[in-house]
Amino acid sequence: QVQLVESGGGLVQAGGSLRLSCAASGTIVRINSMGWYRQAPGKQRELVANITSAGSPNYADSVKGRFTISRDSAKNTVYLQMNSLKPEDTAVYYCNAFIVELLRGHFEVWGQGTLVTVSS
Prior knowledge:
By secondary structure, the protein is an all-beta fold.
C-alpha cells in the first residue's frame, strides 16, 4: 500500500522559515506530480505548489517568491521550503501525489497533514 509521510511542521514567528518534507513509500512504479495543499480553519483546501515529474514547479500567487518546491525522485520525496512566513500561512499542510502503483495503477494519494503555525 502506498502512503505519504509528512514532516517538518511546527510553530514559527512571522518572517521565519520552515521546511516540509513528504516521502512516498510502497510498491510505486512511478510518481507523476507531487505537491502541497493547505487548509486553514474555516477555509477550503487550496493548492500551495506542485511539481511535475520533469521538475516543473507551479505556485499559488500568495506564495510566489517566498516558497520553493523541489523533489528528489530517487527518494520519492518532495520538499517545500517556506521563507518569509506570514500569519496567514497558518494551516494544515497536506502532501499530495499522483502515483502509478504496481497493482492499482494510477491513483491519487494524500498525506495525513502537518500543522504550520505562524505567530505575529
